[in-house]
Write a structure and sequence with these properties.
Elements lengths: L8 E8 L4 H9 L6 E15 L4 H7 L4 E10 L4 E3 L2 E9 L2 E9 L2 E3 L5 H9 L5 H8 L2 E14 L6 E12 L11 E3 L3 E7 L4 H9 L10 H8 L4
Antiparallel strand pairs: 1-6, 1-11, 2-3, 2-8, 3-5, 4-7, 5-6, 8-9, 9-10, 9-11
Amino acid sequence: MTGFPDNYRYERKFAIVDASIAEVEQHVRHHPALFFPEYAPRIVNNIYLDTPDLRNYRQNVDGHSHRAKLRARWYGPLFGAVPQAVLEQKCKRGHLGTKQSARLAPFEFGQQASALGVRRWLETSSLPENLHHEIQSAEPTLVNLYRRQYFRSHNRQVRLTIDSALTFFRFQRHANSFLTRVEVRALVVLELKYSAAASEEAAAVANHLPFRMTRMSKYVFGLNAVGGQ
């Protein structure tokens, strides 16, 4: 597609509530695109950051075609030492998305974490100037985690991920105990990721999935679930 840099890709989601994770996995394994596991499954942890007036949340809810999302992400256990994490700013233009990532300093994420502690963590990390600017007006608003599985089509044109066991925590400005959690076991999120050049292939993949494509933001869903909007 002309007008977009090469690092933009399509991201199309299916929020599935009428099939179990086992049924979703079975459809992927028997798909004619011959999807194969690309990586081992792992737990994804995110701290989402937003402005005090929730600008990113509201842009998504209002359906802005140009919108952004800021999060710190790491893999493995949620609590404890975090030796490798990244700060990601994800930008969307309609169904097209790209992201900029920067490595963060090692961190200890405990059950008494505070917004001030997260801010200090980010500010002591070596960030590009534009990301350093973004965190100046941002504060943590939501923590979530889920189990992600990674697949790729046999011709390697389409990536597919399956997210399950979604769990959300509201991030308070001061001390957090993270005792109040919202677990959404009935929801499975399947996502297709592909370049503009693979649009025809991706359309064929979507047509062979017995699920309805939907608009789905885990940040918006999670903030609504914990009553933080």
